[in-house]
Amino acid sequence: MTTEDGFTDIVQWRSKQPPMPLDALILPEDTYLLLQAKTEELDPDATPLDLWVALERARGTEKRPLGSAIIGDGRTRGVKYVARVIMVDFDDEPICRQEVVVIGMHGALSELAQRGCETIGVLPLRRMRGGLSEEEYLTALHEVGTRLGGGPRTLYLLEQDPAPLEGPDAQSIPL
């Protein structure tokens, strides 16, 4: 399904293969940066003391403001940029609000457009207790699309994380 909202096409991408080429990827994130944490780096042999030390360290971490975005290098994911949009606060109820999604996505998309990104993949916000429904999330994304005069050309609403390809058939986006 493709719809035209202002200057940005919004495409629901249902294929397991990512649309190519994507310039950027947007990931939903929480105020403590836990949703996109690399779980493969966790020590499977951690002792209770190791876990306690990690929890104490996390407790001292400063929360990121809702509606903000962290934009970084996306080469490890096969794109130019990855934007982590802070839209979930596990310390609040509800944990996610539609207006926060709109503010954060608008800021991230505006910044990515200024950096020359025309095709952007958006990962879904997984359904969590106290969070947004899929319909509310899509409504927020369409609202952002209508506000983006001169924004990116196409937003792909992805079904799953397009992990970078590995091996001899891997294709990367030239930077």
Describe the structure.
This protein is of the alpha/beta class and 175 residues long. It has one domain (2-37, 47-158): Leucine Aminopeptidase, subunit E, domain 1 (3-Layer(aba) Sandwich), CATH 3.40.220.10. 25% of the residues lie in helices and 22% in strands. The chain has a seven-stranded mixed β-sheet. Helix 2 (98-114) packs across helix 3. The longest helix has 17 residues, at 98-114. Residues 1-6 and 164-175 have low confidence and may be disordered.
For the structure shown, list the relevant keywords:
175 residues, alpha/beta, Leucine Aminopeptidase, subunit E, domain 1, seven-stranded mixed beta sheet, 3 helices, 7 strands, 25% helix, disordered C terminus
Q: Can you tell me the CATH architecture?
A: 3-Layer(aba) Sandwich
Going by CATH, what is the homologous superfamily? Leucine Aminopeptidase, subunit E, domain 1
Please trace the helix and strand order, writing H or E for each element: EEEHEEHEHE
Gyration radius (Cα, Å) is 17 Å
Strand order of the largest sheet: 1-2-7-6-3-5-4
Our estimate of the beta-strand percent is: 15-25%
Largest sheet: 7 strands, mixed
CATH T-level fold name: Leucine Aminopeptidase, subunit E, domain 1
Report the uncertain regions.
Answer: 1-6, 164-175
Brief digest:
The chain has one domain: Leucine Aminopeptidase, subunit E, domain 1, CATH 3.40.220.
Write the layout of secondary structure elements.
Blueprint: E1 2-5, E2 8-13, E3 24-30, H1 48-59, E4 69-73, E5 81-88, H2 98-114, E6 119-122, H3 134-147, E7 154-158
Helix pairs in contact: 2-3
